[in-house]
Specification:
Blueprint lengths: L7 H8 L3 H9 L6 H14 L1 H14 L4 E6 L5 H16 L3 E6 L4 H12 L4 E6 L10 H6 L3 E4 L10 E4 L1 H14 L5 E6 L4 H16 L8 E5 L5 H15 L3 E4 L2 H14 L8 E5 L13 E5 L1 H18 L8 E2 L1 E4 L26 H10 L2 E6 L5 H15 L4 E7 L4 H14 L3 E4 L8 H7 L4 E5 L13 E5 L1 H19 L3 E7 L4 H17 L4 E8 L5 H11 L5 E4 L2 H13 L6 E5 L3 H9 L2 E6 L2 H17 L7 E4 L2 E3 L4 H9 L9
Helix pairs in contact: 1-2, 1-3, 2-12, 5-12, 8-9, 10-11, 14-22, 17-18, 19-20
Keywords: DNA-binding, Repressor, Transcription, Transcription regulation
InterPro entries: Cro/C1-type_HTH, HTH_LacI, LacI/GalR-like_sensor, Lambda_DNA-bd_dom_sf, Peripla_BP_I, SBP_2_dom
Protein name: LacI family DNA-binding transcriptional regulator
């Protein structure tokens, strides 16, 4: 075989690999196993093919076919700005010059740009984000023989090479997340321009509706014409929000996300209190908003690398050989969304600020000399202190006295005796956390005949809906989902696959909902994670031995969910004694001990109640019930707070309303 005439195809045959693999070794465009690299490079040297490569590089560097051009709609959008930076880096390494041409998303402007490039002998290849998807608009480009690859957008037709995002899958992810969170009235904003991208995103939204048996004819979809400018776009968004009154919104583009957030701000709409938002594109500001924005984040770097690799294949071999023409889009859950929760009787959760007292009602409260008693299941935690603080501060502003605070020490018999004592005090209302959901029912039922009852967290089983005013609780479904998702993301990022669950064995409504939600999100969204075992504890003190037994029997466990902080601390004690501090722990509720373990690194994430806010909400419901005949919500849900190690000090201030101490007890 003549050394001067050897081809890349023959190199591939001699190495027993594909042409694409040889191309990747030559151009360093993708990872190839070191042993294959050595084999191919040895054949290249033996056949003299390296002289051909060097000759081509010399020609490129002196001017002929030495330039790669990115033809894009604009430079304002983050995706194109980032893509240009990545592509420039990748092509410069190969010795090519790099230029950018802007079309302003205008078909005529684009045609002029392409016409100039096709007659320019220096142009080796084009990375193209087309204005249109109609092939007839690009006849000259397609027939020119100049290598090109479409990015982010595509031209419909055979033989058109492209690298796109999984747009249908991405919008499906966002819509599915909102629908799974209990939102039925979801509004989708999409760009008005005709394109395959728009069509794919729309299909993703409709597919999600179909999954939840929502008639797609009833889909709430609004087109936003970006070319009209910011003011017109924001006006269109404002009109749509007023017309559809959604509980959740999904944005179908970068600029739509920005305009949507500005519109919500200008309208004074609380996110996520009134509307949950899933944005698109992961602009640099999305993590810095308040609240940080849940986002569909596109892998622009991956898109750029795939496109450049495909283009070099076409330049070097004449054809593109690629089995994966898509870059991923990831759902990043932050704090702009909330789950819609249901209470014990299926009542939808009302927001705490939905309970509002009129000026007249406040006057009547102050003149009424009302009295309230508190019955806690346990007062020995900072949680109970915050509950009580919130209750007292809310009641004091209305002149309502707290006549007693009882601590049942998790003993249902003791709480029953205390409830008898409270009944003798004849308070106007009682705020209570049941020590047991079944054994205290009878006493609470008796108390309900003489005092208004407001429960925190749980309602005793079997109590009728009309025997209490309301139940105030953290959104336990979201609490568990948050914790499960953090465990799932940790395992995904760190390539962990084995998890153990330690849950509450008692039949408390709140903990049951929370534990089930954590398990469900792992099974639904993280199929690669194996929940090796689920063990329960009845008494909190049993959690230590349960954790010890779980790890001893299942040493392969790499991450652990524990229902809440107190049993989690006992589980951590067991892990430390077994020398298994490598097991990542995820739990609910922030306290001194858990914060210390998070600083130590064994607790990787948690979702926490807001006890002070729950106390204030319970007191507000009591106050309203004493002077109003208005039907109050049977279930008031307080959104939980998600905590990761890097956010610990901020979270502490949010939950405890004070700075975190330098030394945690």
């Amino acid at each position: 075989m003549s050394k001067s005439k050897v081809t890349i195809k023959e190199i591939a045959e001699m190495a027993g690999v594909s042409i694409a693999t040889v191309s990747h070794v030559i151009n360093r465009t993708r990872y190839v196993r070191p042993e294959l690299v050595d084999k191919i490079e040895k054949i290249i040297v033996e056949t003299g093919y390296q002289n051909k490569i060097a000759d081509k590089e010399r020609k490129l560097l002196v001017g002929r076919e030495s330039t790669i051009v990115a033809v894009i709609p604009n430079i304002e959008s983050t995706i194109y700005r980032d893509m240009v930076a990545y592509v420039k880096q990748l092509v410069s390494v190969q010795g090519y010059q790099f230029l950018v041409a802007i079309t302003d998303n205008d078909l005529k402007e684009e045609a002029q740009v392409l016409a100039g490039l096709l007659v320019n002998k220096k142009v080796a290849g084009i990375i193209h984000a087309p204005v249109s998807d109609v092939a007839s608009n690009y006849t000259k480009l397609i027939q020119s023989g100049v290598p090109f690859v479409c990015v982010e957008r595509n031209i419909l037709g055979s033989g058109i090479d492209s690298v796109e995002f999984r747009d249908r899958e991405a919008i499906f992810k966002g819509a599915d997340y909102l629908l799974a969170s209990g939102h039925k009235n979801v509004l989708f904003f999409r760009e008005s321009t005709d394109s395959t991208t728009r069509d794919e995103r729309t299909k993703g939204f409709l597919n999600a509706l179909e999954k939840y048996n929502i008639n797609t004819n009833d889909a709430n979809i609004v087109d936003v014409t970006l070319e009209k400018g910011e003011d017109d776009c924001m006006l269109a968004i404002q009109k749509a929000l007023r017309r559809y009154r959604p509980t959740a919104v999904l944005a179908g583009g970068n600029r739509i996300t920005l305009y949507l957030m500005k519109t919500l701000r200008d309208m004074g709409i609380d996110c996520p209190g009134e509307i949950s938002v899933v944005g698109f594109g992961d602009e640099s500001w999305s993590e810095l908003t308040y609240p940080p924005l849940t986002i569909l984040r596109r892998d622009v770097k991956g898109l750029s690398a795939k496109a450049v690799g495909m283009l070099f294949e076409k330049i070097n071999t004449g054809v593109a050989i690629s089995h994966d023409c898509y870059a991923n889009v990831e759902l990043v859950v932050r704090k702009s969304t909330k789950m819609l929760d249901n209470g014990p009787f299926g009542d939808k959760a009302a927001a705490p600020d939905s309970v509002v007292l009129t000026k007249e009602e406040k006057h009547r409260l102050k003149a009424g000399h009302f009295r309230v008693a508190i019955s806690f299941h346990y007062t020995g935690t900072s949680w109970a202190e915050l509950h009580e603080k919130g209750i007292r501060e809310e009641l004091e502003q209305f002149g309502i006295d707290v006549v007693s605070v009882m601590d049942a020490h998790f003993d249902s018999e003791l709480q029953n005796a205390q409830l008898d004592g409270i009944r003798l005090q004849k308070p106007d209302a009682v705020i209570a956390i049941p020590a047991d959901d079944s054994r205290t029912r009878e006493k609470f039922q008796e108390l309900s005949k003489v005092s208004k009852l407001v429960f925190i967290s749980n309602v005793p089983e079997g109590m009728s809906k009309n025997s209490y005013v309301s139940c105030v609780s953290v959104n336990e479904s979201e609490n568990g989902t948050n914790t499960g998702r953090m465990l799932g993301e940790y395992c995904k990022e760190n390539k962990k696959k084995k998890a153990g669950f330690i849950i509450h064995g008692a039949a408390f409504y709140g903990t049951r909902v929370r534990d089930n939600a954590a398990e469900r999100i792992i099974k639904d969204s993280y199929p690669d994670i194996d929940i090796v075992t689920i063990r329960s504890f009845g008494e909190i003190s049993n959690a230590y031995q349960v954790a010890k037994d779980v790890i001893t029997a299942n040493p392969e466990i790499e991450a652990m969910y524990v229902s809440w902080d107190r049993p989690a601390l006992l589980a951590i004690k067991a892990l430390k004694e077994l020398g298994r501090e490598d097991v990542a722990v995820f739990t609910t509720d922030l306290d001194h001990g858990i914060a210390r373990c998070m600083e130590e690194g064994i607790v990787k994430g948690l979702s926490t109640q807001r006890p002070y806010e729950q106390g204030r909400a319970a007191a507000a419901v009591v106050a309203k019930s004493l002077v109003s005949e208005e039907q109050l919500p049977k279930y008031v849900g307080v959104q939980p707070y998600q905590v990761e190690p890097k956010q610990l000090r901020l979270a502490w201030k949010e939950i405890f309303h004070e700075s975190m101490p330098d030394r945690l007890g």
